[in-house]
Amino acid sequence: MNLDPSNVVPWGSDWLWSLPLSVVTVVIHVLGLYLIRQRFDRFLLLAHHRRITLIALLFMAGTTVSVTLLHGLEAAVWAFGFRLLHALPDKKSATLYSLNAMTTFGHAHENLQERWQMMGALEALNGWILFGMSTAFLYAMIQEAWAQIGRRPA
Predict the structure, then answer these.
(1) Structural domain of residue 71, as residue ranges?
(2) CA dist., res. 97 & res. 79, Å (int)
(3) Structural domain count of the chain
């Protein structure tokens, strides 16, 4: 019986690197959404006293850009991990690969070294979690903004 650890858990290293990266990106995401939410709460206090629907729409656009940048930062964390492991040749290819994996777009011509290929799938799983959080967050903010607009006197 061959008890070579790579045969027993062939993707062990991928999981050992991917799980902390996933946790770090989720923590970054939660903190980022918290900061965006604080900004939103300050805006709602201002908006409560005025009829500023256009400004509310612009604020939601800015919030969307902020969430997009947050996802970019999280992809950069994964790209840093890929570079640290020498799984990709340079920073540019690591960032492109990471954004493709996180969004499950998957059309980049970059491939991880065979040893680290499971990490790409695990980053895609992490991306699903992060995008789910963003979707729920944006939906909740839109619902609250609509409720606030509806409560203001015309």
Answers:
(1) 13-151
(2) 8
(3) 1
